[in-house]
Amino acid sequence: MAKHELYGCPCCSGTFSGIFQVNDNVRNLKKQAASGNGWSCNWGIDWASLGRRDFLKTGGAAAGLAALMATEGNAQTQTVATVTTVFTNGTILTVNGDFSEAEAIAIRGNLILAVGTDSEVRALAGDEARIVDLGGKVVLPGFIDAHTHVITGSVVDATMEYVGMARYTSVDAVLEQIAMRVAETPAGEWLVFRNFDPAVQDGADALTFDDLDPISTEHPIFVLNASGHLAYANSKAFEVSSIANDVEDPPGGEFVRDADGNLNGVIKNNVAFLRIAENYPAMKEADPVGGLLGLLEKWSEFGLTTVSELSLGALAQSPADAQVMVAAAQSGRMKARIRAYPFYTIGAETWDEANVKPGDGNALARISGYKLVADGSNQGFTGLQREPYLDSDNLGIAYMEPEALTAAALERAQKGWHLAIHGNGDAAIDNILDTCQALFDAGIDMSRVRPRIEHCSILHDEQIARMRDLGVSASFLIGHVHYWGIAMRDEVFGEEKAQLLDRCRSVQQAGVGFTLHSDFMVTDPVPLHMIEMAVTRRTWKEPDYVLAPQETISVEAAIRAVTSEAAWQLFSDHEIGSLEPGKLADMVILDKDPREVAPDQIKNVRVVETWMDGRQVYAT
Fold first, then answer.
1. N or C: which end of the chain has fewer CB within 10 A?
2. Is the pLDDT of residue 72 over 60?
3. Domain ranges for the chain
4. How do residues 236-254 score in pLDDT, each as one tens digit?
């Protein structure tokens, strides 16, 4: 028998999707798409040339989206400035093939004009160029997170306050934060939080009425577990949701009770906790486009200029999600690019009927590939394993059986789709590699598919060799090492198998490309911190413990993983990822060179400015 609570990856399994069904805007988008009247985004043409009036007449935008649209003819990528700007007197890390350094870089409009010595760049820029003195600062390509859930996550981020392990080390610290918010919030208003994870935050295993009611019985309080599988609420939240002690559990969900049979405030699965969340006004009224634009603005502080949506369709459970991306792209207010992957649970035929094709969109927002899922989460004990989890006979779960995975991959690849396939456990990765072998045997051009394994958590040597031979790359959720490393060692796998987690150096030495990602909302998308995690592999709970020190990598390799390699995985290496003439002017300016600070201080390097599409989108 499995001894653990089982749950999947909250983002890649679509666990969060049920939450969004209470949102009025999402409901409207889904209804319009289902009616056949709402889906008409003119895929395949340059979105920047699509005027406001043309977009709105499709009927695809919900009422609140219209106000966010740019005026006709003023879409973001249409603005072509003639001003040339030269950045000099600093270090330019191009992250090109040689990782070469330059003295200066010039941009004109939204493109890089020149990179080289100060004299070379000034000569090409001309006498009218504006000169920016870097004062010894360091310029890198804009950071890229190849696996986030920016569209689905933006609604949650806009409506729930983060209380996860990155900021709060213990359950007591979380309760203190909730109490502080109660003290500054009028009675009766909701307080809603996310990313609580008692599996890694020291203290009690759950939040019950006994924990939350002493903080407030006048504010409805709701806390979502990081797994998306559990939630906790105080008695006031139950009261305003009309959930009494005699409530019956819905199929697939549970209102947990104490030894005396009374509700204790713990709720399992969204079919149950949505009975409470649906009464939270902000969740009902949140504007997905406004939330997306706000999140991209916040992330510009981290130096991010390109992000991703690895489960497009999970918000509205339909292709209507792309309406949100379209509206943001046309708003003139995007501060980062988006690369999106339609999610397999919506159905390939549904995406085809909506005329969504790989490469649709423009440089601001584009459909990059298709997302499949082989298994669940290792820390949720649903990652599919060759051997049982520690002290258990549980092998995890195949979200797609091998035959179904291969059939879906073949069908998509034959239609020209790039594939991103979620795989955490080693048996799931076996299944993915068998699928890739089937693609190769079918005569499919693997260089066009560019298959990547998402998370790619547990890897054996022979699997790395197969990845190399089949042209498969890895995208590592490096926060697994830092935040969950001790749990992986002591509770999930044991010391020996934990050494196989996120094998960055081994894949690099084998010639397999790899990236580092956040899987937001699982961890925060802070590239400099992700670089530090990969360089040091120090764990959050035991800072002096290095998990699999043989898998540490150089700072340069880690920088590549969040710039040029990430651009390649997203089929955008022709336009972003390195500082080279002709590419888009996406840059981040740092106060220090990450290669020249102590490895455990890389996360403290300061982002001074972020430039996207030739515009300064963030400055300290």
1. N
2. no
3. 160-284, 368-553
4. 999 999 999 999 999 989 9
- Helix, strand, or coil here: 581? coil
**Regarding beta strands 263-268 and 304-312, do their DSSP bridges make them parallel or antiparallel, or are they unpaired?**
unpaired
Average pLDDT of the chain is 90
Single-letter residue type at 337: R
Q: Which two tokens stand for residue 503?
A: 């094998």
C-alpha to C-alpha distance for 161 and 592, rounded to whole angstroms: 31
In the prediction, which pLDDT does 44 show?
Answer: 36
**Mapping DSSP to helix (H, G, I), strand (E, B) and coil, where does residue 435 land?**
helix
Res. 61: pLDDT tops 50? no
Contact between 255 and 263 under an 8 Å Cβ cutoff? The reply is: yes
Under the banding of pLDDT at 50, 70 and 90, the label for residue 3 is low
Q: Exposed, middle or buried by CB within 10 Å (0-12, 13-18, 19+), for 400?
A: buried
pTM to 2 decimal places:
0.91
Helix (H) or strand (E) holding 309: strand 304-312
**CA neighbor of 373 nearest in space, from 415, 313, 316, 318:** 313
Q: Is it true that domain 160-284 has CATH number 3.40.50.9100? A: no
368-553 belongs to which homologous superfamily?
A: Metal-dependent hydrolases (3.20.20.140)
pLDDT digits (tens, 9 = 90+) for 202-228: 999 999 999 999 999 999 999 999 888
Rounded CA Rg of the chain: 24
Provide the percentage of residues in the chain whose pLDDT is more than 70. Answer: 89
* CA nearest to 124, candidates 132, 116, 136, 134: 116
- Four-CA torsion 249, 251, 253, 254, nearest 10 degrees: 20
Which residues, 6 or more positions from 353, have their beta carbon under 8 angstroms from its beta carbon? none
